[in-house]
Amino acid sequence: MSFPVVFLLIWAGAMAAWWVVSRSFKSADVDKIKSRILDNPEKQAKKAKAASPLQLIRADESGRNVLMRILAKLDLQTKLQVLIEQSGLKWRPTRVVHGSLALFGAAFLAARAVFGVPYLSLQLAIAAAVSLLPLVYIIKTRAKRLFKFEEQFPESLEFVARSMRAGHAFSVSLEMLHREFQEPLSGEFRRTFDEHNLGLPLDAALLKLAGRVPLLDVHFFVSAVLLQKRTGGNLAEILDKLAFVIRERFKLRGKIRAISAHGRMTGIALTCIPIGVALLMFYVNPAYVSFFVEDEIGNIMLAAAILLQVIGYLIIRKIVTIEV
After folding, report:
1. Which of 27, 163, 182, 186 suits a disulfide with 168, CB 3.0-4.6 Å?
2. pLDDT digits over 35-53, tens only?
3. Can you tell me the distance from the alpha carbon of 122 to that of 117, in angstroms, rounded to the nearest whole number?
4. What is the per-residue pLDDT for 137?
């Protein structure tokens, strides 16, 4: 039995054991809550005095996830959580990692046993590519959500300006956006209003909005509001001008995308052609390309070719990408 198969079996057993242990901890917590509700206060006071701080710390540490500790130590938990929050998905970082590992194992077994992919390195490469699908989905969903927010943002600024001219306060105008607009803009401004309404200063609530929505236009909006709050001025007029500038940037960005479309298509074609030829040769004449997989020098050449291909694609993307 090969090492990857043994690793997958060990990982599956560890995940099953973790699931059983977590379920037992949850059931134990439910029993404790029920006993606290049903018992009288005198018994609960005695139990609280009997419990030492060390036992409470150990109980808290026992409920923590091992995988979450690893992600936190590698500084990946916060970044993954931010990506998930910006995408609008209700996923957990640990679930994403578990799903990626499960996809890796399923893809590896399928490539090895079902489709009969000949080489171990190619099997691992296919499994690694499939395991990245949850992360790719999160990034794509995040990009679509931010683009939709950016489309709604100029109209929302004009709505806030009209609302303030009608006599409403700025915080009330933010709350009205929740009823007049659709997601994702309505949800983000509703969250900002709720945070401010529950006691968070307006400056902090707006800064948290800028952190959740990493768009240049949102940063301009937050900076304008904070500056107007400190120095004074006509905020409605500032928001109208900001909405006009954002719309002009949209028009200019569309013209640039139309002009640079040929360069983007060229980069995609130059990247996909070697991949297509390699896959075709693996099935038409495997002996011809087995040198790149079985020989050590061939492995170095294949790695260098992939690296140069990626560098070339990134250079083309950098040339055709023009920030507005």
Report:
1. 163
2. 554 444 454 444 444 433 3
3. 7
4. 92
Q: Which two tokens stand for residue 161?
A: 């300006």
Rg (CA), the chain: 27
Matching residue, tokens 């904070």: 226
- One-letter amino acid of 177: L
- Listed as ranges, residues in the chain with pLDDT below 70 are 1-75, 115, 117-119, 324
Cis peptide upstream of residue 184 (ω within 30 degrees of 0): yes
φ, ψ of residue 183 to 5 degrees: the values are: -70, 150
Distance CA 172, CA 164 (A): 9
Residue pair 96/138 in contact (Cβ under 8 Å)? The answer is yes
**Amino acid in the structure at residue 74:** L
Helices (H), 39-119: 41-50, 53-62, 66-73, 77-87, 93-109
Q: Going by C-beta distance under 8 Å and a sequence separation of 6 or more, which residues neighbour residue 236?
A: 160, 161, 162, 164, 165
pLDDT at position 45 is: 45
Rounded Cα–Cα distance for residues 152 and 185 (Å): 7
How many Cβ atoms from other residues are within 10 Å of residue 283's Cβ?
A: 7
Give the pLDDT score at 59.
Answer: 36
Return the pLDDT at 140. 92
Alpha-carbon distance of 179 to 14, in angstroms, equals: 47
Provide the whole-model pTM: 0.65
Rounded to the nearest 10 degrees, what angle do helices 133-165 and 216-231 cross at? 40
Report the 10 Å Cβ neighbour count for 267.
19
Question: Can you say whether residue 220 is alpha, beta or left, with left for phi > 0 and alpha for psi between -120 and 50 degrees?
Answer: alpha
Alpha carbon of 142 to those of 136, 163, 211, 244: distances in Å? 10, 30, 14, 25
